[in-house]
Amino acid sequence: MTENRYERLVVVSNRLPVVLHRQEDSWQIKGGSGGLVSALGPVLRDRGGVWIGWPGTSETIGIREVRNILGPASESSGYRLFPVFLSPEEVESFYQGFSNGIIWPLFHDLQGKCEFLPDHWQAYLRVNELFASAVARHTTPRNLIWIHDYHLIHVAEMLSRQDVSRRCVFFLHIPFPPLDIFAKLPWRMSLLRALTAYDLVAFQTARDRRNFLTCLRAFFPSATVHGRGPVMTSTVEGRSFSAAAIPISIDYDDFDRTARSAPVKRQAALLREQYRMEKLALGVDRLDYTKGILERLMAFQSALERHPELRGRLSLVQVVVPSRETVKAYRDLKERIELLVSGINGKYTKDGWIPVVYLYQSMDRSQLVAHYLAADMALVTPLKDGMNLVCKEYCASHVDRRGVLILSEFAGAAAQLSDTILINPYDTEGTAEAIWKAFEMSEKEQRRRMVSLRRRIQRQDVFWWVGTFLQAAAGVELDDFPEVELAPILPLRRHEGS
């Protein structure tokens, strides 16, 4: 065990790992889901960890009621939950406006969808300042502050402005765009300078880090970069910080164990019997224009046209998980998807065979793993993605060591998973041919590829990601954070927290 000067690990993200919602006259709490919760929950548990974030509601809740709700939730999770409350206007301008209306499309190379409104930028800064104030209030210099994703880029800088000294490290879960795309952001200098306020800035891939460092040199000509390998050092305006490439992953053992369970195996067998096809293709995506769902459907239609042998033998099960349903662009995307599915099925359906089975719904873990296990191929074809964990989940679930992964070369996972069929999601005919290749692939070749993919994902799982990040961030390991009681619920006095 190394000598460690950090007594607590504090995670700061846009959302808490729980969601508060009103049910009649009382507040209810619902556990969150997703890769970040799965990754960091075990890390914070029983080590005095803290998680700071928005609780998912913009309604006013009294302090006593917050304590009554989040106190027991903290006890059961094993780490303290501290909320940052946002008004409806802040949620609209900060979250929908700047974070998801500007940064999200811009960083995914879709600048045509951006609306560069100054009011949204100001809201973004105000909310980052609110988060910084919460960090200052609930932490000490003996805490390591791990801030997550594009919503909160300015938190470290805001802490510095408040004259609060903390070791802050940052992980960007989405891609970082190339210079010609990033340069279109009106507030590019401010955003870059905010990132240099961290002691470590980490990205999903070497490409993302390279894009960041290229932008840094372009807008700060005196910036220097030193070192090679996963972690490099940069100096900007007299301040040095580290830049790393550390790809996030999944809990491999959990997916493998779930796929081996008898109920999931039975469910997978029932799915194959239900669809009654020789082979099944699967797409699983959150409703979003970056996921390439329309392009995938057009490629599947092209495959049916170019290879009539597929008709009656291959069906695509497309799962779309509801997301941002109040946003017009997402409602429009859903309508376009449903029209395209209807058109494909109207043209090709015959003798009980349905080309595309469209499921607009969320799935629990066992349902999802059963679909992974039942599918002969997975189509993971985002137009751009920071990592994309669906492809890793699919491979980890294939305990039978069969199945083929068709993967977009623009997903961050493509840099790790070489034994896939890589495609350009904009190339309709190329993707169609990849579907045909996957359909025709021998079982021997499937096994060779799947064994290699599973080995890589198992070796670099989510716990490897956390451990590697902590080493790069502060030279510590998870075991260096001692088992201690929950953090105190009362805010620290100013002299304790500075």
Question: Could you explain how this protein is built, in words?
Answer:
The chain is an alpha/beta fold and 498 residues long. The chain is 45% helix and 19% strand. It contains 18 helices and 17 strands. A 9-stranded mixed β-sheet has the order 5-4-1-6-7-8-11-10-9, with helices on both faces. α11 (293-306) packs across α15 and α13 packs across α14 (390-397). It is globular and about 70 Å long. Mean pLDDT is 93; it is low at 493-497.
Question: What's the gist of this structure?
Answer:
This protein is an alpha/beta fold.
Distance between the ends: 28 Å
- Helix % is 40-55%
Please describe the biggest sheet, giving its number of strands, its sense, and whether it closes into a barrel.
9 strands, mixed
Widest sheet: strand order? 5-4-1-6-7-8-11-10-9
Q: Any low-confidence stretches, pLDDT <50, length ≥5?
A: 493-497
The proportion of strand residues reads 15-25%
* Count of separate DSSP helical elements: 18
Radius of gyration: 23 Å
Structural class designation: alpha/beta
Number of distinct beta strands: 17
Q: Describe the global form.
A: globular
Mean pLDDT: 93
